[in-house]
Amino acid sequence: MRLLLHWLISAASLLIVANVVSGIQVDTFGAALIAALVYGLISVTLGLLLKLVSLPLIILTLGLFWFVINALMLQLASALVPGFRVRGFFAAFVGALLLSIVQWLLSWLLHV
Question: What is the pTM for the complete model shown?
Answer without folding.
Answer: 0.91
